[in-house]
Amino acid sequence: MDKKTNIRTPDLSVVIPIYNEQDSLFELHNRLKHTLENLKVSWEILLVNDGSKDRSIEIIRILSQRDERIKYLHFNRNFGHQIAVAAGLDHAQGKAIVIMDGDLQDPPELIPKLYAAHRSGHDIVGARRKMRKGETAFKTSTARLFYRLLNQITSVDIPLDTGDFRLISRRVVNTLRQMPEKTKFFRGQIAWTGFPSTEVLFDRDERKYGKTGYPLWKMMRFAMDGVTGFSTAPLRLVTQMGFLFSFLSFLIILYAGYSHFILERTIAGWTSIVVSTMFIGGVQLISIGILGNYLSRIHRNVQGRPLYVITEQSERFVLNSEF
Ligand code: UDP
Ligand code: MG
């Protein structure tokens, strides 16, 4: 392999979405660079600035100017974490790609372990957290519950207790890029490809600087994308609920008739009417909401808009079209 192709096709790309990470960027860069230099492979780091409102982009520009192996894409507004990762995967050149967070919760020092597992024949190497330091009990327990529930209702095995920190091979990336859906849920999509996979355990650190870019509402939207992207169980559940409640109300009608005509006793139940009406109303609203979620998914995909808009990128960027 001549030198030119070597630069173009590094052994390893590290894709990192960045949203308001100005305080962690220098440390992230130092630790990454140190780890990658010791790994003795050719590498590139691809930072995707997801419309940060702080000075992240200025730092990214400086880092990229100093070292041509550090590349960046810049969105002028916040498109969301998964979309930033998608842009990174579209532009990464490496034979293997590591996806990780930029807030140092995913330790860069784990990369050699991921790479070693990849070299021993795995296309997907997940980083599974043993412990999650500094996260609220609420976040940890809802995350646990969510992944267990998701695995119950989907046909793909999405690994438990993993975020997006993982290494994937070029052929996994190529497969992902063939999945045209606009609503991305990479941990599910990667598992869906079915390539040989393994896991490496690590302790997830707490966020050192700044604050989470994932408030509760974003987490809920993300969870919904996971469910609607990989399962139609909620739609079936709605139908089953519909049958169940129709059957129950039929029984109640029978009983009301019996009580009126046979027992000659009319039930003067205001409470029961209000309670059951509200209950059925609630069930209906939830059902419509679930339908709406699938509908909005179709809507977003039918619109066919580009997934992201890059307003600036590092020089010497070769668009990844040859793959
Ligand atoms: N992030 C992003 N866009 C967003 C939110 C987050 O690119 O809208 C990035 C963020 O900079 C970090 C990663 O995605 O590198 C994970 O986000 P965060 O640490 O806020 O999530 P948490 O670890 O709290 O789930
Ligand atoms: Mg984090």
Describe it.
α3 (56-66) links the parallel β2 and β3 (70-75). This protein has helices at residues 3-8, 25-39, 56-66, 81-91, 111-119, 137-153, 170-177, 186-193, 216-230, 233-262, 270-303; strands at 12-18, 43-50, 70-75, 96-99, 124-132, 162-169, 197-204, 312-313. It has an eight-stranded mixed sheet with strand order 7-5-6-4-1-2-3-8, with helices on both faces. With 323 residues, it is α/β, with parallel strands linked by helices. Bound molecules: uridine-5'-diphosphate (UDP) and magnesium ion. Magnesium ion binds at residues 101, 103, 105, 207, 212.
Which features would summarize this protein structure in a list?
single chain; 323 residues; alpha/beta; 11 helices; 8 strands; 51% helix; disordered N terminus; binds uridine-5'-diphosphate; binds magnesium ion
Write the layout of secondary structure elements.
Elements: H1 3-8, E1 12-18, H2 25-39, E2 43-50, H3 56-66, E3 70-75, H4 81-91, E4 96-99, H5 111-119, E5 124-132, H6 137-153, E6 162-169, H7 170-177, H8 186-193, E7 197-204, H9 216-230, H10 233-262, H11 270-303, E8 312-313
Parallel strand pairs: 1-2, 1-4, 2-3, 5-7
Antiparallel strand pairs: 3-8, 4-6, 5-6
The structure holds uridine-5'-diphosphate and magnesium ion (MG).
Number of helices: 11
> What is the helix fraction of residues, given as a range?
40-55%
| Dominant shape | elongated
What compounds are bound to the protein? uridine-5'-diphosphate, magnesium ion
Q: Biggest β-sheet: count, sense, barrel?
A: 8 strands, mixed
For the secondary structure, the number of strands is 8
Strands of the biggest beta sheet: in what spatial order?
7-5-6-4-1-2-3-8
